Amino acid sequence: MADKAASTQLEQVPLLEGPSGYMKWKQKMEDWLGLYGYGKLISEQTVQPTRREHENDNEYLTRVDTWEEKQERGYAAIRSRCGLNAREELKGVNRVDVALSRLKSRFQPKGSAIFQQLDQNYTSLTLDQCKSVSEFAEKLRTARNEIHLLDETCKISEPHFVNRFLTGLGDNYNVFLTSFYQSNRLIPERDAQNGITKDAVTFDEAVIAAEKEEQRQRFSEKNKEEAALIAQRRPLPHCSECGKVGHTRDQCWELHPELKAPALAEKAARRRKRGELKSKRNERQ
């Protein structure tokens, strides 16, 4: 069962085809290695185990065999998520740490051009491009991590990161944002001795709050749709002047032609608003 789960999760790691996909591949590949017991092969267990004091031959050989088997399985997992070019780089390699080092040397993006591209991806991402708040948050995390992997000088601070998420929610969250900014701090509050007296809001806390607002808005929209359906089922009024249904004598355009233009303008505005809401719902489904 565990092997099946590991195999399923491994298939979620994208194939490494070139530099453009390296950052995401590295993150997901190392996450998988750590999750399924191969993480120490990257740093602590990079060389064959040495004999311990008072260890007999069988015990030592068992540890060596276990280490070699883990290296083989870990390397095979890495190779399975590599495209043709990446596999060429792994010829003659049989250790996890060496395989990752080779691929990093060959495919990790470098220089100002890739920084500009990753920064553009990070700064332009908004909720409107995603199906939900949780997806937006996950994509923003990935974009930030890709920038961090470039160089230690590219670190994005937590306050900047939280604010970037909040400003990317869009106009539909303006009321929520006003309340959120009033009740939370993006940077910690300190006393005269520079000790923190009130913590800053974390990214996860901001995401949870935005998800609750998302659910509230969806529930509100659903209630409005249900109310509209109920209203449609009610008996329509009848005009005694022109004999048509849908309006009364006081609202009849034949009797009161001055009412026609404002009514048509209001109807067009409602139709336009419904179209915008429907379009946004379709984008998020």
From TrEMBL:
Coiled-coil residues: none
Domain CCHC-type positions: 239-252
Regions crossing the membrane: none
Single GO molecular function: zinc ion binding
Amino acid composition bias (Basic and acidic residues), ranges on this chain: 276-285
Superkingdom: Eukaryota
Keywords annotated in UniProt: Metal-binding, Zinc, Zinc-finger
Keyword Zinc-finger: yes
Protein's name according to its UniProt entry: CCHC-type domain-containing protein
Protein's organism: Periconia macrospinosa
